[in-house]
Amino acid sequence: MKRRLTCLIAFFCVLSAGCGIGSTGPVRAGGPASGLREPGSATHYARLYFVGPYGIQPATREVDAPTTPQQALDLLLKGPDAAERARGLITEVPLMDKRPVARAADGAVDLHLPVPVANMTGGGGLGLTQIICTAANARAADGRQPSDVDVRVYEKGFGTPWTIRCNEAGNIVPAPEPATSQGATG
Known about the structure:
Layout: H1 2-17, E1 44-52, E2 55-63, H2 69-77, H3 82-86, E3 101-105, E4 108-113, H4 125-139, E5 150-155, E6 162-166, E7 172-174
Parallel strand pairs: 4-5
Antiparallel strand pairs: 1-2, 3-4, 5-6, 6-7
């Protein structure tokens, strides 16, 4: 009886081992894998600032290479993409005859506005914050914190720039005054 049970178990094991699986080898099923980067390739992002239901909101976009402050501003000026609009993001950057120009300089950004801030729709406001924070974040790509990047704003018609920063919350704040040494008076 034991022998018969053992033979019966062996028979069912052999029978179930070939349960519908043929010996066809590998079969092509669709195209090659996509969405994965090649080993050693880097992923780069640009952080743009838009306006959302709760104020200024950062949006991160994948880009081909690290962006300069000007390249980031050019992306900002195109407005939010479809995914950003689906999140409720809009732009308050006013239309201008010329685009703002941003150049990285001395660990800072020199931002040249084509119009005075007072002439920007609504006095600048959120649109100006979008521009400044986007430029500061692009400059911060060299390892600095965006809140440590001075943005020197040059307004059309004014000779002297004013310096501002973008804090961690995405708000613009005056840059701290440079430390002055106090010498002995005599």
